[in-house]
Amino acid sequence: MPAFSQATRAVPERPRPTSPFTSTAYGRDKYRYTKGPWVESYPEHGYQDKASPSETYREGLKTLGDFASLSPADQDNKLRSIEKSHFFQLLRQHTIEGMFCDPMHGGNAGLIGWQLVGYPGPQMSYRDEVDKHFGQPWRPKPASLEQTAGRRGKPWEDEKG
Fold this sequence. Notes:
- This protein has 161 residues and is mainly alpha-helical.
- 38% of the residues lie in helices and 0% in strands.
């Protein structure tokens, strides 16, 4: 496996706490906005950098070298040295998105991210549960949108536009 590929698998494991519930957080980067216009904008207008996310990753991963072969302490030190960079900020954001997104988008395998924070997933209604659990903690097992709806969902990334 090339060093580039090993680093892309190893780096997301470091910025979050180790827990028996954490899983590898991978999203679908190829669906990120990568076309202009590149204008000064507000954060709510989405990704507006001149370099595409994949270009940012390629350049950032070069700075990490053979990251996967480093000891955990050395990996942490390496990440601390780049944590103010645009690459690290993008990597951190994508790791969080992959950890907590609905699995139909390609991350949060086994709903582990939702289990970690106690999120039940998208619920169509809580009406049937209100009287059953009144005044008591209610921790339903997480269910993805596809599980809740009972049919395969179509992520927005797959829409033709």
